[in-house]
Amino acid sequence: MRFPLTRAASSPGWTYEEALADLDSRVNLEAVVLGRAAAPTLDRIAALTSVMGEPQRSYPVIHVTGTNGKGSTVAMASALIAARGLSVGTFTSPDLERVNERIARDGRPIGDEDLAGALEAVAALEAVAGARATRFELLTAAAYRWFADQAVDVAVIEVGLGGRWDATNVVDAAVAVVTNVALDHAEIIGPERRDIAREKAGIVKPNSRLVLGETDPVLAEPFRAAGAAEVWARGADFGLDANALAHGGRVLDLRTPGAAYDQVFLPAYGAHQGDNAAVAVAATEALFDVPLGDDALRQALAAVHLKGRMEVVGRQPLVVLDGAHNPAGAAAAAATLADDFATVPSRVLVVGLLRGRDPTEMLRHLAGDRTRLVVTCDPPSPRALPAEEVAAAARSLGLAAEDAPSPAAALDVALAAARPDELVLVTGSLYLVGIARRLFRDRTA
Predict the structure, then answer these.
(1) By the 8 A CB rule, do 414 and 375 touch?
(2) Is residue 5 assigned to a domain?
(3) Domain that includes residue 110, residue range
(4) Pair (235, 124) in one structural domain
(5) Any residues with CB less than 8 A from the CB of 231 and at least 6 apart, and which?
(6) Nearest-CA neighbor of 387 among 374, 377, 379?
(7) What is the 3-state secondary structure (H, E, C) of the chain?
(8) Number of domains in the chain
(9) What CA–CA distance (Å, rounded) separates 121 from 125?
């Protein structure tokens, strides 16, 4: 039995503001400072999707986990699917500016009215399901049902945290994807990388095809042991034969079990985005079991826009936003600055981190030898690491640093200090990147 999302004509239903207020009233595990708020369980989300008639089983799913690159891989895979003329639903986290961004169809975020209606209808079933969902569980259930109501041909789903106990893991994905495994959220799914790999391997189901981007044999072993019907491994079955810097992005030679694509332009900065593209292409071909076609692939990747991932939003000074939220991400950002932005003589950093990060380790990666000033601020999150602690870590590395009372103030300080030929990098928490994106757009409107 399926419970409809449509409400009775006599019922006014939730407004968008009421829907957001209900979300804000729920347990928000994304705001937990350290550790789990409760024992991990899929019981609540499974009960909700059960009373909805298992909407997540009405379309094939690509399920993406990994420490870094999940969002970029999801965006690229979604574009590749759309290039075949199919409707694609995407579920991602976190949002940068509005919660609507998490649930999208064909690249367009769900509208305010549709989101309010979907959340209200799912919340109305909690009494039947016998449990009150967390914020993330409610969003997940609403996304799955909205995708079913929209009759998407495929859904591409990003894991929120880990895999095995993540609310998204009530899907039985046709393709399970792992981008990589590094140390992040070790206090929850660690403590070691092998432990993290085991948690992420929980998304692999017996009938799925696994696209395995992690190449370390020790870390890859839990994924191989998870029982997928078939494994496509980076290096052996798919990968990059070339990943070169180009004006405005990268030029890639991509290889999959069924095809090779040479000199493909990707308008994204950083060699790591070439790696993400290889995973996305393999995941999409693993779903269809046929090559994508040269023209469709080129057009899809050339149109990709990755918000908050080495995104250039201003010139003179060059302003770049990047959610390098963990040490592996910071290392990738540093490599991108050294390669893709090598001609920029010096830079100013705006940094906001969450608790659980070592600010000295993060800044050691990010600063390099060209950072002239570090401006710190608290990201808009209960998990924010105090700006003065990040500034102190910068000074311990011999860097000039100033802590600002807000992201807006930090951006003002950085832009006032930067010379026209310098680069301003806003980095760290994606919550900071999101608010900086909105602030910068407003100041240049």
Answers:
(1) yes
(2) no
(3) 16-302
(4) yes
(5) 209, 210, 212, 223, 224, 237
(6) 377
(7) CCCCCCCCCCCCCCCHHHHHHHHHCCCCHHHCCCCCCCCCCCHHHHHHHHHCCCHHHCCCEEEEECCCCHHHHHHHHHHHHHCCCCCEEEECCCCCCCHHHHEEECCEECCHHHHHHHHHHHHCCHHHHCCCCCHHHHHHHHHHHHHHHCCCCEEEEECCCCCCCCHHHHCCCCEEEECCCCCCCHHHHCCCHHHHHHHHHHHCCCCCEEEECCCCHHHHHHHHCCCCCEEEEECCCEEEEEEEEECCEEEEEEECCCCEEEEEEECCCCHHHHHHHHHHHHHHHHHHCCCCCHHHHHHHHHCCCCCCCCEEEECCCEEEEECCCCHHHHHHHHHHHHHCCCCCCCEEEEEECECCCCHHHHHHHHHCCCEEEEEECCCCCCCECCHHHHHHHHHHCCCCEEECCCHHHHHHHHHHHCCCCCEEEEEECHHHHHHHHHHHHHHHC
(8) 2
(9) 7
Do 250 and 327 fall within a single domain? no
Q: How far apart are CA 383 and CA 119, in angstroms?
A: 26
Terminal CA-CA length for the chain? 49
Say how far apart CA 28 and CA 103 lie, in whole Å: 18
350 and 292 share a domain?
A: no
Reference 353, options 414, 305, 394; nearest CA is: 394
Q: Which two tokens stand for residue 374?
A: 């570090």
User: Do 125 and 245 share a domain, yes or no?
Assistant: yes
pLDDT of residue 7: 45
Q: What is the rounded CA–CA span in Å between residue 414 and residue 423?
A: 10
CB 197 within 8 A of CB 223: yes
345-357 pLDDT per residue, tens: 999 999 999 998 8
**Residue 184: its pLDDT value, please?**
65
Bridge-based pairing state of the strands 311-314 and 318-322: antiparallel
Specify which residues 62 forms β-bridges with.
156, 175
Spatial CB neighbours of 267, under 8 Å, sequence gap ≥ 6: 248, 249, 302, 304, 305
pTM, two decimal places: 0.94
- pLDDT-based confidence at 36, cuts 50/70/90? low
Highest-pLDDT range among 4-8, 110-114, 321-325: 110-114
Closest CA to 62 of 82, 77, 76, 84: 77
- Spatial strand order of the sheet with 260-266 comes to 239-246, 249-255, 260-266
